Amino acid sequence: MINMNSNKTRQLNKSTRSNLITIGVIVAVYVVCQLMIAMGLMSNLMQGLLVPLCYYSILAVSLNLTVGILGELSLGHAGFMCIGAFASAFFSKSMQNTITNSFIRFFLAILIGAVSAALLGVFIGFVVLRLRGDYLAIVTLAFGEIVKNVINVLYIGFDSKGVHFSIKDSMSLNLEEDGRIIINGAKGIVGAPNDTTFTAAVLLLIITFIVIVNLIHSRSGRAIMAIRDNRIAAESVGIDITKFKILAFAISAAFAGVAGVLYAHNLSNLVATPKSFGYNMSIMILVFVVLGGMGNIRGSMIAAIILTLLPEYLRFMQDYRMLIYAVVLIVMMIFNWNPTCIAWRKKYSLQNIFVALKSKTKRRA
């Protein structure tokens, strides 16, 4: 019994060290980027990619909770991101003149984006409760497309009489002279405040990582992984399948909504285009998870960063850009899934190097 407890404590300490190293690396990269910006050593292209790198990493980490930890193939993550983006941008645009403090307004927008996406995550969790595999992927994919198409036909505005709503056109709102349109159908939301900063994006990425990792190592996380490994066995020992599936969907959707908030407040015009919130976006997020390693939170972030930077920095090779991109995808798949590569990665991981350096320091002392 004592041996089991000591092994459990050792394993917990090992994972805690690993997570602290990951957070430390994120903070170190943030400091280096800020110094490079201050000294004028970072290109405009790279500065423009800093916030996207953060929200793509948040999307990858949050989807890994559903795909890697829960074991359910979901292709509706772009839909959750879309809901969070438009709900938060609607709030910020409406309250732009009322809440003048950008920090408070952005904080409330984050909460609204996360809650609205989480509520839809709960709804989807109930709907797809008994679906698995390809059927779940089809339903969640359809959900993402429905969300995008519904937003494209929404016309919402307000004046002194209140809020006006239409799905026909902007003229049907019948706004008075003092009224203004917030959501203008396929034109989306124009003029939402650009409150997203690199600092806020990094903080939200760290919060996402801490919450997801702590959930995985909690009792709820172990129950979710038990459902993934053997649903029938998990149910037979008293695990509430419905509760934990909905919990995973809701938390995953909430952080996708947070990524949507960062996306929406990083642009002047927010439009629900297929490129931003369509099928390809959901597939791209899934690629981050698969190549980073399903269940590997740190790997998801690394894959999101590499696969976001790579196409941008290969633009000068117009004829061979996609070929190199495909080769990198194959190499990453081999690196993450080949047993020999897995063993080598474990042997030379940052955590093991840290432990080796610590033991060597102790021996010298």
Task: Tell me briefly what this model is.
Helix content is 72%, strand content 5%.
Give structural notes.
The chain has three domains: 1-42; 55-152 and 188-291, no CATH class; 314-365, no CATH class. The chain is built from 15 helices and five strands. The protein has helices at 2-38, 44-69, 77-94, 102-127, 133-151, 198-216, 219-229, 231-236, 241-264, 274-277, 279-292, 297-313, 321-337, 339-347, 350-364, and strands spanning 155-159, 162-166, 180-184, 189-190, 269-270. The strands form two sheets. The protein has a three-stranded antiparallel β-sheet, with helices on one face. Strands 4-5 form a two-stranded antiparallel sheet. α1 (2-38) runs antiparallel to α6. The protein is globular. 36% of the residues are buried. The mean pLDDT is 84.
Give a topology summary:
Layout: H1 2-38, H2 44-69, H3 77-94, H4 102-127, H5 133-151, E1 155-159, E2 162-166, E3 180-184, E4 189-190, H6 198-216, H7 219-229, H8 231-236, H9 241-264, E5 269-270, H10 274-277, H11 279-292, H12 297-313, H13 321-337, H14 339-347, H15 350-364
Antiparallel strand pairs: 1-2, 1-3, 4-5
